[in-house]
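**User:** Everyone, produce a chain:

**Assistant:**
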Amino acid sequence: MATKVHVGMETEMNGNGVPETFKNNWKKRLIEFSGKMKRSPGWLWRTIWKVGREDPRRMIHAFKVGLSLTLVSLLYLMEPLFKGIGTNAIWAVMTVVVVLEFTAGATLCKGLNRGLGTVLAGSLAFLIEFIATKSGKVFRAVFIGAAVFLIGTTATYMRFFPYIKKNYDYGVVIFLLTFNLITVSSYRVENVLKIAHDRFYTIVIGCGICLFMSLLVFPIWSGEDLHNSTVGKLEGLAKSIEACVNEYFNDSELKENQEKSSEDPIYKGYKAVLDSKSTDETLALYASWEPRHSRHCYRFPWQQYVKVGAVLRQFGYTVVALHGCLLTEIQTPRSVRALFKDSCIRLAGEVTKALMELANSIRNRRHCSPGILSDHLHEALQDLNTAIKSQPRLFLGSNNNQANNMLALAAAHAARHNKPEKDGHGVSLSSVKTDSSALMEWKKKRASEQAKENERKVLRPQLSKIAITSLEFSEALPFAAFASLLVEIVARLDNVIEEVEELGRIACYKEYNPEEDEIIVKCEKPPVDVAKNQLPTHASD
């Protein structure tokens, strides 16, 4: 029987009646799939290498988790331990999986929350069980149900308290879970108290292994991460400002920046600052749980680091606006920008030096240099001010009358063409005419109206061009915005210096020593990304 094909469809069939196009598509997909499978090992290896190279501590943490799971699995694998604990050993495994985090502070926070929640829930559940056993079976069920409702409602509502939500939210969740498991199961299961004891012991074992791995085996401190990220943000902003000003006076790179702004080093420098709010707050919270892991005998004011980060974000918004001047459609001519190149580059260099000095002071845990706001910065501001005042014609204009005359001429030209016509045509049209003459007159009128409409369309952009080109100082307007943002950066620099000095005062940083600082600056000049991902050096702090 012949295969039926719809009208308008031409499909070649093989011997089995399968369309050739369908078969070719499957072959193509199989070839593509086999190619992806061949490339997958190389892609996987490159991904593993990239992730480990970005932060070597990730590999260390992975080994720590694997070793912890192996140790806690011995509760199952070794017969004497299994006989003593039984199947409740699975709670130790669950505890290691849930509690062991990347940093010591995060592990301490979750481990202590889990332990505290378990102890409180177990104690309250034992008290309720003791009261319920003294009554009858019906009253016991009602009492347990009422207790579960009351405790569940109260604990859940307490999770909305800002302080509890910030510090003990995980502990409240564990409290609810443990309390309901013990209280509800006690109604049907006998000897529930022994089960609760065994689970508590296994949770303690799991938390103990997690704390041992986090605090004693290659510890990773949240406080060090927050400290190094603050240094990296200051260095990133310094590099962004310097690169932004240098590229503004280099026309050859402006188009490339417009096309690849997301890959540009300017963007990379301030992006880390703008995206740091949640990270700073989380690291500061975990750092507050950590013990004193340095040689100093005081606790660091981690919340002050959060305040420094907030000031840096405000500072970073100005850098974003400064970067936007490189990407605007209207640019000041290169000849005009060249008049102010030296003064702007000098001012940006002084701001960069101040930011790098702040970064070095935080890195070395010392006070800022007394000359951080040196006379060179004020001299650079005065140079820029003098350079702008030396070109009043660019910013104030010298031919205002001529510009007004040009605008008045353009407005009169537009008014003349847009002036409504008199009713003379009405008189002529009211006279008696033949059909051919009326048709000819209508065509002439239609042609004249179309010509006027086209002239008005052409006149509108011409008027805007006349209005812009007649203002001589319009060429300098984009540069005026750039210069004002540069001065705004200098003004906001005072806020950054004030917060960093406050951090040094509260944290009792050591006094500034020029000779020691010179040696330190020569020895370590890490890039921004390396400073964030380097191994913690808490022993040398």
